[in-house]
Amino acid sequence: MFVASEVFRRNPALGNAVRRQCPPTSKRVDNVCRHSPVFTRNTWRRIKIKDTMRGPAVWEVKAARVHLVDTSGPGKQSIPTDRLYWLMVARSTRTGEIKYFVSNAPRRSKCARRRV
């Protein structure tokens, strides 16, 4: 489960205090990618994965930094992890298939910046 970084994030203006708009709760990945401002503000980027017999396999990708949510604690409370991860959503231009990926790559990694 994930929580978008817009909902729960550290606020440097308050000396690293945590800003909460609401208590952190886990969200379904598809809902985060569809409705969270972190994703809706981003545009789709086209990436050519490989050449196939039917032509190039091209996917559209969006990525954003999110907190994972740990629900294994006492009382099954949703507690965001300390670090940010990449949540990527990929959509096939040919079939419309949608896939979701999580990566612990650093913030400045190439995985979120590649284009066709």
How would you characterize this protein structure?
With 116 residues, the chain is mostly beta strands. The protein contains 2 helices and 7 strands. It has helices spanning 29-35, 37-40; strands at residues 2-4, 8-11, 17-20, 45-52, 55-70, 79-92, 98-103. The strands form 2 sheets. Strands 1, 4, 5, 6 and 7 form a 5-stranded antiparallel beta sheet that branches. Strands 2-3 form a two-stranded antiparallel sheet. The radius of gyration is 16 Å and the shape is elongated. 15% of the residues are buried.
What is the number of E strands? 7
Number of domains: 1
Question: What is the CA-CA span between the terminal residues?
Answer: 30 Å
Strand content: over 45%
Class based on secondary structure composition and strand pairing: mainly beta
Q: State the shape.
A: elongated
The percentage helix is: under 10%
Assembly type: single chain
Tell me the series of helices and strands, N- to C-terminal.
EEEHHEEEE
Low-confidence stretches: 1-9
Main pleated-sheet profile: 5 strands, antiparallel
